[in-house]
């Protein structure tokens, strides 16, 4: 953020967050709730010096607030908000960003290629063409590029891996798009290697250990204010990496709704470019770096997954290098599919930025927020509008997910496993593997072939995307591609071929990759017995 | 008419219920315009204050204005009440979609489900228009009694507070008490489903089976309604309200109900085609029985009364045979499908 905007945005955040606390009682409650949450957090803060500094700050607030007059308490609340806001807004500097984006592609190439000296040699001669080829950006790229000049865009990707933000940062750069502001969890910065890049990708630190509502208000307001100031934003509406491997179904509405309020504020202020465009996109990997940890976490506590995982594959540079090396050697691609952009009410937007109804007719989107002859916010109405937007984002995710060989094979084998053990519950099946440790390859391939037929029909109808292997290769080639992937990177292979049998080994992984396809809720995908 | 000036509401559909609502609102002094398909019908309402084809022997409020031109009337209305039969609903909705804007409120009163797609009316509105502020008005509201000015109650359900408030405000001061709700799905399912049960209840009357039988059909019918509703995401309590049991009581008890009429004549042994040919009005229960039956099949729901009515009105099963089929079913726990879901 430019220095001139930064101070303005800070003031605006503080004002807006405070305006939600109308009376003395609400202010007092907010102070003490925040103190309670913050002191609890500080008990486990690792950085002792920092903890002592913050504790002193809160102790002073506490003694000043105790029995103080309402206007004093209001001033103290303002101090806390200001401190939160400064912390959130403090990290992003466009000059560093500009330098970093120039630096990243070669740096990332070296990083990736350093995994293999041989590759480094090849890379030196091919001019890093590998990396260019490794990431495919598809879909509505030109529309996104154009809309980014007409208004402010909010990119909302699916989320599988901590590598996502790096991949997207790089993809944005390659599309020639300006910086995107992005809130990243503190744990992403723990990995020094990646942290370096994160810092310079437009990321600001989000401290998920801060549970105070006031802090969350500040984060949301920060996103809204930066949008209003014309800075493009990126956030993952799923909130966290998909634990079960499926495409997100539950989306966080709080941040999604900030686009709408920014739009209304922009209209009310009579800005020249008031429009906010929400652009869903899907990130698709044949292998996911943290698959093992994520699915384990999902199975351990279905529904209440740990929100912060600090000890996964992402925190181990060697695993990242290993992962990237495998992807390169398997000629595996990462696909970023950009969906048709939406307005903040969930309507699709055409190439020129006009909203359209579901029959393709242009509509005047300003009318949705018309109020008393002008425009205005209405929290109840706007919350429902945001539900509409979330519905459209979910639909886009399902339509624009790209399926690879690993998903198709895992789906086939896992379905077969369940069909053969109808009486065994899921957890027991995952643990024991059921009656047979392997299936005949011929049987699996027959089922895979039927699945491929169905997937290709669905892809032809525009219901999903297929990678090149799935779209064009024969069943055996698809199976071989999937096996090569599933047997290579993970500690235990999900499935292995020995002779004419396919052995299911890591069934959790099998479930994980199966879930990608399963979560799309496509009709007629039951593989017949 | 002077559609150029701002009006309070536009009612779409010159059938008996649309006319009743428009007439009620005009009687309350609201600036209301009634859109009808045929220009002659609009002329008749504007000059003679009558709509004889659909509501014979009724004098309409003199300030009720009718038009056959959709676009200008639509442009001037902050609130639109859509009251057209389910079979032409999509076509009219598409036409509405040509003109309507995002600030306008669109509330429908149609009690039916689209054949083939199984879509609810609000889903059709969402597909065919850009309107988001959608609602549904439903309840025990027989058009004849509305014309007679008897006290009645209705439910307007919408996800938007603004829609509920505006609709309540529109009807305020009259003898139609409009309650507010949030469950659009349950309200729509209640309103369409009860027409099927009304046919079944009419059959019981036609066969002179008595009040015990009717009460049995109505309560088990309500249970089927709630089962279907809950599976579609409705709030089970909606079915205990005006749009559920309220509407069911009125429709099953009243000789004024068209669906009840269809059942009554089926019970007396008339053929379905002859019954339908002799009716001016649409009996929504007939197409709805097919839509719900097909929908239930794909969802794996067991709805025996729906299946029986479907068989009577679409497959020629006799009333007596239908009763025999229902009675041959095993009895189980009364609330098993709802309580243990």
Describe this structure in words.
The complex is a heterodimer of chains A (529) and B (341). With 529 residues, chain A is of the alpha/beta class. Chain A folds into three domains: 3-89, no CATH class; 94-179 and 231-399, no CATH class; 402-518, no CATH class. Chain A is 55% helix and 12% strand. Chain A has 23 helices and 16 strands. In chain A, the strands form five sheets. Chain A has a seven-stranded mixed sheet with strand order 1-7-6-2-5-3-4, sandwiched between helices. In chain A, strand 15 (495-498) and strand 16 (501-504) form a beta hairpin. Chain B has 341 residues and is α/β, with parallel strands linked by helices. Chain B has two domains: 9-182, Rossmann fold, CATH 3.40.50.720; 192-339, N-(1-d-carboxylethyl)-l-norvaline Dehydrogenase, domain 2, CATH 1.10.1040. In chain B, strand 4 (79-82), helix 4 and strand 5 (105-108) form a beta-alpha-beta unit. The N and C termini of chain B lie far apart (54 Å). In chain B, 54% of the residues are buried. The model of chain B has no long low-confidence stretch (mean pLDDT 93). The chains are: A alpha/beta (529), B alpha/beta (341).
Provide tags for this entry.
A: 529 residues, alpha/beta, 3 domains, seven-stranded mixed beta sheet, three-stranded antiparallel beta sheet, B: 341 residues, Rossmann fold, N-(1-d-carboxylethyl)-l-norvaline Dehydrogenase, domain 2, 2 domains, eight-stranded mixed beta sheet, 16 helices, 8 strands, 52% helix, 11% strand
What is the gist of this entry?
The complex is a heterodimer of chains A (529) and B (341). Chain A is an alpha/beta fold and 529 residues long.
């Amino acid at each position: 953020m430019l220095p001139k905007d930064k101070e303005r945005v800070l003031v605006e955040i503080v004002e807006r967050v405070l305006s939600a606390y109308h009376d003395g009682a609400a202010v007092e409650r907010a102070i003490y709730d925040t103190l309670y949450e913050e002191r609890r957090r500080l008990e486990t803060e690792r950085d002792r010096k920092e903890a002592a500094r913050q504790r002193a700050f809160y102790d002073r607030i506490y003694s000043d607030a105790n029995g103080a007059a309402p206007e004093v308490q209001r001033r103290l609340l303002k101090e806390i908000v200001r401190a939160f806001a400064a912390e959130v807004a403090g990290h992003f500097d466009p000059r560093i960003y500009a330098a970093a984006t120039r630096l990243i592609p070669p740096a990332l190439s070296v990083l990736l290629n350093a995994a293999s000296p041989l590759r480094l040699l090849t890379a030196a001669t091919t001019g890093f063409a590998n990396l260019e080829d490794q990431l495919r950006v598809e879909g509505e790229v030109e529309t996104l590029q154009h809309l980014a000049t007409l208004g402010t865009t909010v990119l909302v990707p699916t989320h599988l891996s901590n590598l996502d933000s790096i991949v997207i940062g790089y993809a944005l750069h390659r599309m020639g798009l300006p910086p995107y502001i992005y809130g990243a969890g503190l744990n992403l910065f723990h990995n020094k290697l990646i942290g370096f890049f994160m810092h310079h990708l437009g990321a600001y630190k989000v401290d998920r250990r801060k549970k105070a509502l006031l802090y969350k208000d500040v984060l949301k307001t920060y996103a809204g204010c930066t949008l209003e100031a014309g800075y493009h934003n990126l956030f993952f509406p799923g909130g966290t990496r998909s634990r079960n491997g499926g495409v997100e179904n539950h989306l966080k509405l709080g941040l999604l709704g900030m686009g709408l309020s920014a739009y209304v504020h922009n209209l009310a202020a009579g800005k020249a470019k008031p429009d906010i465009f929400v652009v869903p996109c899907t990130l698709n990997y044949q292998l996911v770096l943290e698959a093992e940890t994520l699915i384990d976490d999902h199975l351990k506590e279905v529904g209440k997954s740990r929100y912060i995982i600090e000890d996964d594959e992402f925190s181990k540079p060697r695993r990242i290098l290993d992962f990237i090396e495998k992807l390169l050697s398997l000629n595996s691609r990462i696909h970023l599919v950009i969906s048709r952009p939406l307005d903040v009410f969930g309507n699709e937007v055409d190439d020129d930025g006009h909203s359209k109804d579901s029959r393709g007719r242009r509509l005047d989107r300003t009318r949705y927020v018309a109020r008393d002859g002008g425009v205005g916010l209405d929290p109840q109405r706007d919350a429902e509008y945001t539900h509409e937007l979330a519905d459209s984002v979910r639909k886009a995710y399902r339509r624009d997910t790209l399926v690879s060989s690993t998903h198709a094979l895992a789906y086939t084998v896992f379905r077969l496993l369940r069909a053969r053990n109808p009486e065994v519950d899921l957890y027991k099946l995952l643990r024991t593997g059921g009656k047979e440790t392997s299936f005949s390859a011929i049987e699996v391939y027959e089922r895979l072939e039927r699945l491929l037929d169905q997937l290709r029909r669905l892809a032809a109808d525009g219901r999903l995307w297929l990678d090149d292997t799935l779209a064009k290769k024969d069943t055996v080639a698809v199976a071989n591609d999937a096996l090569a992937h599933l047997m290579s990177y993970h500690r235990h292979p999900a499935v292995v071929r020995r002779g004419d049998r396919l052995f299911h080994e890591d069934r959790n992984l099998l479930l994980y990759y199966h879930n990608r396809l399963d979560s799309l809720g496509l009709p007629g995908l039951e593989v017949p017995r | 008419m002077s559609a150029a000036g701002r009006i309070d509401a536009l009612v779409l559909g010159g059938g008996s219920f649309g006319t009743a609502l428009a007439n009620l609102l005009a009687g309350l002094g609201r600036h209301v315009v009634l859109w009808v398909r045929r220009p002659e019908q609009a002329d008749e309402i504007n000059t003679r204050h009558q709509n004889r084809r659909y509501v014979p022997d009724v004098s309409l409020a003199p300030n009720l204005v009718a038009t056959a031109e959709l676009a200008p009337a639509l442009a001037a209305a902050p609130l639109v009440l859509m009251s057209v039969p389910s079979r032409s609903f999509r076509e009219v909705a598409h036409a509405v979609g040509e003109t309507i804007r995002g600030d306008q409120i669109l509330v429908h009163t149609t009690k039916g489900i689209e054949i083939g797609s199984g879509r609810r009316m609000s889903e059709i509105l969402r597909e065919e228009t850009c309107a988001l502020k959608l609602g549904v008005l439903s309840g025990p509201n027989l058009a004849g009694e509305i014309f007679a000015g008897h006290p009645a109650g209705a439910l307007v359900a919408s996800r938007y507070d603004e829609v509920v408030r505006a609709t309540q405000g529109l009807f305020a001061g009259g003898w139609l008490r409009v309650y507010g709700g949030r469950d659009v799905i349950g309200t729509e399912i209640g309103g369409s489903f009860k027409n099927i049960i009304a046919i079944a209840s009419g059959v019981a009357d036609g066969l002179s089976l008595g009040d015990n039988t009717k009460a049995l059909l109505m309560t088990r019918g309500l249970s089927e309604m709630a089962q279907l509703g809950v599976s579609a995401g409705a709030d089970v309590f909606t079915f205990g309200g005006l749009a559920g049991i309220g509407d069911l009581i009125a429709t099953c008890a009243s000789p004024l109900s068209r669906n009840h009429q269809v059942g009554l004549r089926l019970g007396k042994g008339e053929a379905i085609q002859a019954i339908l040919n002799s009716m001016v009005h649409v009996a929504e229960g007939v197409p709805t029985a097919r839509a719900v039956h097909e929908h239930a099949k794909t969802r794996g729901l067991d709805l025996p009364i729906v299946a029986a009515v479907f068989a009577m009105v679409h497959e020629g099963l006799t009333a007596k045979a239908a009763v025999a089929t229902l009675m041959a079913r095993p009895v189980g726990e009364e609330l098993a499908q709802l309580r243990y879901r």
